[in-house]
Amino acid sequence: TTAADSNSNDATTAADSDVNAATTAADANDNAATTAADANDNAATTAEATAAPSSGSRRRREVKDQLIKLINRHKRETDTAPARKEGHDMLIPRKIMTGIWPKGDEPRTDPENSEICLCSAPGMRLSIPITIENKVWKPAYADPASQTFLKAKGDFDTQMNQFLAKNKVLMEAGLAGMTVQSIQLVTDNPAEGSEVLNDATIVLETEVTFAADFNETISTALVEHLASSQGQFATPPKALTASCNFTELPAAYPAGEGVEAYLTRLPINNNFELEENQVAHELFGYYKCSAASRFLSDKFDPDKDGLMGIQCVGGEWDMKEAEMPTAEDCVEVTVCSTDSIADKVTTSLLNSPKVNRVAPDEFLFLTCQDPQAYLYSSREPLPAIFKLMCQDDGTFLPWKTDESGNQGLDDTNTWPVCTPPKYCTNFPESPEVPDTTTEEPSDTTPSGSTTTGLPPTSKLIPVSTKVEKVREYDFYEYKCSDPDMVAESDSLFRLECPPSGEFPASQDITWPRCRPSIKCLDPIPDPPFYTGLYSLAEAPKKEYDKIEYTCYDKKLKLSDGASHAEVTCGSDGQYSVPDRWPICQEEGTKPCKCLGDPEVTNPTLCDGTLENCPAAKLLDATCRNFSRTMLYFGDLPMVPLKDRCGTTDIGKLTEENMCYCKEKTEEGSKDAYMIVFHVVSESWNNEMGFASTDMFKELKLKIETNVDRMLLSDPYFTSKQFVRSKMVTVEKGPGYKCKYPPNPPASAGYESVTSALADISVGETFVYKCRQSQYLRSMNSTDPFGIRCLPDRANLVGYYEAPAEETDWEPCVDDPSYIPGCRRVDWPIPKGDLLLGANPDIITIGSKLQFVCPEVENPPADRPNQRGVTSAGASFELACLEGEVLQTAMFWPPCKPPRICQGSSGPDFDQDATGLSRTYSDIYEYETMELTCSDSIKEIPGTGSFTVACGYNPDPEAEFGSWIRPEKWPACEFKDAESCDPLTEIDIPVETGIIPDTSQFILKDTDGVFKCRNSSLVIYFPDAGQPTAKTINIKCGGDGKFVGFAPEAWPSCRWPTCNTADLPDNTTTGELVPVITGETTPQGQQVAFRCPDGKVVDNGLYEYVGCLEKSDGSGAEYRPPSTWPACREPVICPMADFPTPTQEALDSGLECIAADGSEFQFHACTCKDGFEPDSSPMPYCQKGGLWKPIEVWPLCKEITTTTVVTTTVAETTTTASGVVCPAAEFPQLSEAAVNSGLECAAKDVSEGKSLACTCPSGFKPDATPMPSCETEGKWKTIDSWPLCEESTDTTAAQADATTTAAAAVCKAADFPALSTEATDSGLTCEAKDVAEGESLTCTC
């Protein structure tokens, strides 16, 4: 039970507790007599077991998990639901029975004219949860307010009552009927409750009432009669009440001859007497000290009432010698005697005290002899009370309240005298009502009044003529003589009696006018059931009338101290209902702090150990053993109470301080859950089934203690204000279970069919199967197989007959005949109009399962088997996915007859541009129309056909389908026999580098143009006499095939070169001679001419002649200067002018020995071994014999090896020195390298370094090493040059193959001028055409 309403949204966490018990539930929220089997030891049959076949496996869960499921399963609403109504939604047990007043001729009753009436409370109420199998479950059953539930309830009520009425024993017991209170679904998956289920197992929570008092014969007859029709269900609980004989308590204690007794037994309280001298279980007999001047010590009398109790427990008095008080526990106590104040009491006109003595620090209360008299002020509450406090010295002092409201002792010991008040007896008579008037209406006339002008009035008359006098400050009341009228702004007029005791004269009083009253026509408000309030008043009510509500039990008092609760009829015709109704409860009790209250069930204090948990202490001390938690009928407990046990003193947890927060006052438990579970630690014993046996009591105490401690130790349950548990019955359960499932090795490949949480009884099997596509060879079958559960009687458990060693398990092996796919057994049942199409039994992975619509009712003549269509297509398909799982249908589209797409409205297109013929006809949705080329020698490229579809029109009101306009229309091309495809119908050796100039078809008997893939290359022919060209023509023959070259006769694309034989001779060059490194010079490179004997020309050491592209682009040619420079001796830079290195350079280890320098030459400075100069320039002899100033001198740095990787080439620097390989002597590229597109921009390269060569866009050099500079300034001989190969970026390569001709180029003529600083540093940039996105390499 929980003290707070449980919330289904919060029921998702639970205590982690080591309580190994399965739980299921019968809902006990109705507080009716629950007859569910509870707390079964070792193997109590669970409620769920009633819904499962006897041979099937059963579920087992941890207590905490099942409790959460229970809350979710039985909750009526969530936080977002509307506030629930009282009555049936709250499942309140019936306290009364209904009947009818017999009207009509005796002895028959006339049903049509009879009236419903209320009978006395049922003598017996039984709550019976009935399990019914093979029923339809509807989600609305979970809402007791839904029409679906109410209809089903009515059907079940009728059916069950007709069945019960056939039993004679039940009818003789005064059967008042069975009513269904809730319908629950039995399932392991709460999510199933949101769907309609066929063949479901449901539980009906029912209440059966009888006029007769409970006896076991009636209960047994009901159980047997229901079992004969409905099968298994929970049976009523059993218990036994015991009582103690009062005469067995000694009249005096200690008893015996010659022993002086110091305790005396009090007489028995007849109100609690069962029979003569019989005291009920858990009640008390009382003792007090025998000497009148002595009182029990606080240890035995903490509430200081002078009494101590001996409890009746299980039929015996709990009187233990060691726990009884001794003579020293009767203590002499100082008291105040009322005889000492007798004279003052008489003088003050006070009533004599009812007691003779008062203990120190306690009060004596005295009242006036005249109940209307006052002590200090006539306005003080009556009766006037004079308080006296007993002092430690045995004297009384007055206790007063001063004018500021402060209370305390009056040390002056001043006593007031009771003063009689004055009374008014001269009651004024109101004036007569005028016959006519023209006055304006009163300001106090309610706005809701329907009268006009001044309302008619009636005379004011006394409410009661029996009143003879009115006390000062009290009121004399008048009412309107017309009972339908009110006195302006109130129902009555009240005239206060002044302290003089004389009312003013009538003419000096402002009398209100009487007017017609407003009516409250609605039925009077009903207070909440838990208040215990009722009223016999009926509507309509007059304005200002008050409806009084009183407690149903006159012994109860309202919680706000009032004598009754009131509701007033307002001037707006509406009742003023209190925001919070007072509650009927017992009077004079101390506040009860109960289990479930935050200060008792405290989540902070109730931690894992429970050492400081008030709730755990309260349960252990009193509530678990002594509290009343059941309603008893005869000898058997039937109804667990929702009253919560508590204490009036949390610091003193004694039986005397026990109290209850009662259900009737809405302080009881809000939710109650019946739980049935197994105890598996020992075997069943028949004595466990009887509540009077020690075995039952021991088990009850153990189970309740453990369940309480488990839930109290978890903050979730304490935050939900958990109250306590109560074991009701113990019954015999099924046999031993195999608790832990077998553990086959992973290598066996078994998959569990039985859940790992299932309870498997002895003789049953834990079922496995091989995964789909495998089987057990020994069985030669793919059927499931099982491992049997055997009994272990020594340990009260079962065990599985499983192989001991991993190698003993037979593994699942592959089924050679298995076809992966989605099988017919797993296909969903189509919903709506859809039907399964013609599908194979296995839908292979990637294939689709097809659903089709039924044939239309009136198909067209040309389509006799026409089917309907859906918004998803002509058919609805679900794909078989990887893992052999069929795609889930998010929805099932409805079927509709297909609509026509009219040929006259087919989509338009450009017939001239496409070459298509516009020939549409009428077709239906999801059908296609094929279009053809208008020219018979042309065809549609690719598939040879092109279709336009009639699409589904989403507008349900539309008459026709909707043509789907293609995003792109094809263009007809000549047929293969009439043309040649330059992309597919000619085999061009890839090494030639030749590609078609266009992708368009070439008509037969015409030429197609072909070009180089690299636009920088030209075409060379095998016939050396044939000049190079940018393009070649290849003819498309009359048979539609190209007339190409033989494989060995194909021309090839090469880098344009100049023949060194065409270089100018010395007749024109003077002394200059070429530095020839090969027979040809690639286009874009230069041939260096140098002077003999170390001479120079004015521009430097060399004069260069470039190999440049011809103007028509068909090849390359040398372009020598128009005037050749003359050779001369170089000018010497004198050693005297040699620049001086900086100190930083010298400190770094730079050695730069001054010497004469030759014009246009660098002077090499060196570093010691292991170091090299950095990239700063060396001393340079400029033109004219002047040393070039050095702004930044080289610094020596330690030699390291660094590898730099770029997208085109890897350049490795190993050493550095002043020696360089001149660009003029760069070796000649091989023909294969040039043809592949390799470009090497010759430049001076330092010793030990390589020159980076590049490839066209979309290509990269292969792994062959680049040309490098070796020792003594000599280029390394190249045996195998790098070749350009296609880049792995196929997208870029394809783009290059088709768009090279159109790529943008940065022209050499537009190359930007170098800055002066760059030129002075020695930077040289040879301008040339560069493709978009590429860079130009400059040198130093």
Short key terms for the protein model shown above:
5-stranded antiparallel β-sheet; elongated; single chain; mainly beta; disordered N terminus; 4-stranded antiparallel β-sheet; 1340 residues; 14 helices
Explain what you see.
With 1340 residues, the protein is mainly beta. It is 9% helix and 26% strand. A hairpin with a 5-residue loop joins strand 35 (565-569) and strand 36. The longest helix is centred in the middle third of the chain and has 19 residues, at 694-712.
Give the secondary structure arrangement, pairings included.
Layout lengths: L22 E5 L30 E2 L3 H12 L22 E5 L13 E5 L4 E14 L9 H18 L3 H5 L2 E11 L11 E14 L5 H15 L12 E3 L6 E2 L9 E3 L12 E3 L3 E6 L4 E3 L11 E6 L2 E2 L12 E3 L3 E2 L4 H6 L9 E2 L4 E5 L17 E6 L5 E6 L5 E3 L13 E2 L35 E3 L7 E2 L3 E6 L4 E3 L5 E4 L17 E3 L2 E2 L12 E2 L6 E2 L3 E6 L5 E2 L6 E5 L5 E2 L7 E2 L7 E2 L19 H13 L3 E4 L2 E5 L3 E4 L10 E4 L11 E5 L16 H19 L2 H5 L17 E2 L11 E3 L5 E4 L3 E6 L3 E2 L9 E8 L4 E4 L12 E2 L6 E3 L11 E2 L5 E3 L3 E5 L22 E7 L3 E2 L13 E2 L9 H4 L8 E2 L3 E4 L6 E2 L6 E6 L10 E2 L9 E2 L4 E2 L13 E3 L5 E2 L3 E6 L5 E3 L10 E6 L5 E2 ...
Antiparallel strand pairs: 1-43, 2-46, 3-4, 5-7, 6-7, 8-11, 9-10, 10-12, 12-14, 13-16, 14-15, 17-18, 19-20, 20-21, 21-22, 23-25, 24-26, 26-28, 27-29, 30-32, 31-33, 33-35, 34-37, 35-36, 38-41, 39-40, 41-42, 44-46, 45-47, 47-49, 48-51, 49-50, 52-54, 53-55, 55-56, 56-57, 58-59, 60-62, 61-64, 62-63, ...
